[in-house]
Amino acid sequence: MKIAMKVNSHQVEIDVNGMKRLLDVLREDLRLTGTKEGCGEGECGACSVIIDGRVINSCLVPVCQMQEATITTVEGIAKDGRLDPLQQAFLLFGGAQCGICTPGMLIAARALLDSNPDPTIDEIRESIAGNLCRCTGYTKIIEAIEHAANSTSDPSI
Amino acid sequence: MPIGKNVSRKEGAEKLTGEARYVDDIVLEGMLYGKTIRSTVPRGLIKSVKFDSAYNWSGIVIADYRDIPGNNFVALIVNDQPLLAQSEIRHCEEPILLIAARTKQEVQQAARYIRIEYEELPPVLTIDDSLKSEPKIYADDNIYKRLCISRGDLEAGFRDADLIIEGEYRVPHQEQLYIETQGMIAIPGKGTMTVMGSMQCPYYVHRALKQIFNLSDEQAIVIQTTTGGGFGGKEEYPSMIAGHAALLALKSQRPVKMIYDRAEDIAATTKRHPGIIRHRTGVKRNGRLVASEIDIIFDGGAYVTLTPVVLSRGSIHSPGPYACDNVCINARAVATNTPPNGAFRGFGAPQVAFAYEMQMEKIAATLGLDPLDLRRINMLREGDITATGQRLNWSVGSEDVITAAVEKSNYLAKREQYRIDNESIGSKRRGIGLSFFFHGAAFTGSGEEKMKAKAGLEVTPEGKVRVLSGSTEIGQGTQTIFAQIVSSEMGIEFQQVEIEVPDTSRVPDSGPTVASRTCMIVGRVLQLAAREIKEKLILFTAERHGEANVKLIDGQYIANGKVLAGFSQVAHEYFSIHGELRVFANYVNPPGISWNEDTYSGDAYPVYSWGVDVAEVEVDPETYEIKLVKITTAQDVGRAIHPLLVEGQIEGGTLQAAGYGLLEELHWDRGRIVNNRLTNYIIPTSLDAPEMETIIIEKEYPHGPFGAKGVGELPMDGPAPAIAAAVFNATGAFISELPVTPERLHAEMEKREYEKDENNETNEN
After folding, report:
1. In the A/B pair of chains, how many CB contacts fall below 8 A?
2. Strands (E), B285-338
3. Are B275-444+598-753 and B453-586 in the same CATH fold?
4. Where are any strands of DSSP class E within B418-490?
5. What is the model's pLDDT at position A156?
6. From the CA of A49, how many Å to the nearest CA of chain B?
7. pLDDT exceeds 60 at position B402
8. Stretch 37-96 of chain A: residues touching chain B, C-beta under 8 Å
9. Which class would CATH give B12-121+177-268?
10. What would be the CATH architecture of the domain defined by B453-586?
11. pTM for the predicted model, two decimal places
12. Cα–Cα distance between B462 and A70 in angstroms, integer?
């Protein structure tokens, strides 16, 4: 079936099996391979994308539901070839190690900061509770998100 | 000088933008998708393999053991694990057949039309069963390996003891659970086979391919792609999946990609060895250990794989970081009909650390000593001798880590406060406990001496220096620390160092990326290579400029206070005049290190890293839920080349070990893992992660690069016993089996209540 959606600010139209997972459409049809598969059942969050403002596991979404949807993947976070403050903070605070959970983490954190620019530590922990990381122990990811929030909400930092 | 500075990691930006290419992100022209057909019984013989004629097999490539041109074994320590089973099945999920098709859907569908019939044989599924030696599944006693370490006179020690304390500890399987599952792409060439994928050890895969396909060193080409975590799980297993992908590629003459889904990855690949560890300890009333008898049994699973080496590291670490003159360690690894257990961060040490630290808790409780005092009385200090007879000559941070962690966590005051709080009413019981541990860096015994790890540097036409090493970046920061070590040693900018992709056709064998050895051993080799290449280029510059006493500082060649040229310019000039400049170096053990493999005595490791964890927990007395509130940890890793990466290793390892302590458990049904999904194999989330406070102690190691030791595995050893000690402190329940689940705590507390009632009744009578 034909699907029209907006991915990372670009209007795209594809003709695919409507039951194909959004994850596979992104990775195979659109070649946006930044979105990863870690479990295929919505537990690890490596495939997180923002759909109409909400963080969703793209492995659980049949693409037929994406008609007219607005989707942001990790490739859409950096603007004009420059890292987003969140990406810079991950670099600065050691939030990425092996990097496989990083796209999903960034997406979950971006969605949090879009809706809540000044989150508490507990809110940050909650916002990434659906994203598993086996490398960092989460501490540096939480610090990075906290720093990004501060640097965005207070331009003097 | 970027040593000790938190420079941005080399491959950081590409991981943050989604540009990094992991194996599953790569698509090649004409590529097929492969799948492994596996056994469904734990032990038996293959009776028949049937391809249902209802399915059209014309588009499916099929390979079995008969297609293997070379030796049907995955090369490791001994040749016993087949790439594909021929007739005998020794564990569930054993690979039997391979199929490939143009799409993932097609290959999944075809798999449903294959029927394999077995003649089932009675399996051995647990350590206890294996020890009965019936049925015999390996040799005549089901034992892969026995080890014995002996020091002093054990019986004399026990005679000298005021008290003998015994304990039995049980540790379970643990899944590495890298978030990127195992995956490989094989590409057939004219007489060559190229395999690229997710791995820790390209040269292990290289060796395996050579044997399976009768290839020369040059014909087998192995390339690491960006790797989404390893933790030991991508030490030996990648040789298996690489062999499978390559066999399908050989048969189809097309590139073949194989990516495991999570269920297959958990069900079929290696786990941490489960074990039973018994301690019998003789102590004086003042707490001094005088005799230590330790019995270790690890479950190796169905094939030998790395088990003897895991058992070796486990045995050497089993007395813990404590001095005792009379020690006897007997260790065995047994065979079972379960998927082979293998490398996992810590490599035998986390298992024995849980046992030795819980034994220390038990001794302290029995003697009425504070566990901290007991550790201080017995801890190894510089100049002390370990169970293998190794005198600790350098870089012993034991005292420092204990002091730092105890002070920072406020251990003593909190222990007293919780004691008072827990006596009065309150919904939650709080507890604080600590663990003290050490970890030998690099290979055990004469491993490094035999390996002679090789790494090198080359000058690029663009005027940079490129690192040539088989060591892999798996998230821990290899690329970054290598660039720091080389740039610091040479006196050039961090950005002037590039890292070659680990590709066996372009980099030498630096040994596997395991055993906390990458920084200390391979980093050291690179430091030596950097020294040599620096001298060569200084000589070249001195001759060209007719200057003596040329120095290279911050990327500038300077003589007598005058800048002669920049590094890039000189490197570029050298390249234009002389062509390639490559320098290689090999690892050489520090002087005075010796190890006797026959008696298992001597210097087991060149040096040890040291750690203390202080865990704080809250226990709900109604639901028995355990909340891990905080872990304070102090770890002596020698010089921290990159403190942020060191903290990353410590925090990540600590949480992985907290999972081992509290959550992670496999459930089995007749040799098959039942909870092989992320829905039911539970690892810690951000909400389970405690607050962490990390203190890095830097007792420099004189033979490491800039004083660095190892850090990768150390953080895995301490958390489980620290958590169990905190639970013991909070509840009085002594849990001797991991993980410390609410169910286990409930059972132990019920038992205690029951025993208390019994005692009361006895007293009343």
Report:
1. 162
2. 289-301, 327-335
3. yes
4. 429-440, 454-459, 465-468
5. 43
6. 12
7. yes
8. 37-41, 43-44, 46, 73-75, 77-78, 83, 87, 90-94, 96
9. alpha beta
10. 2-Layer Sandwich (3.30)
11. 0.97
12. 44
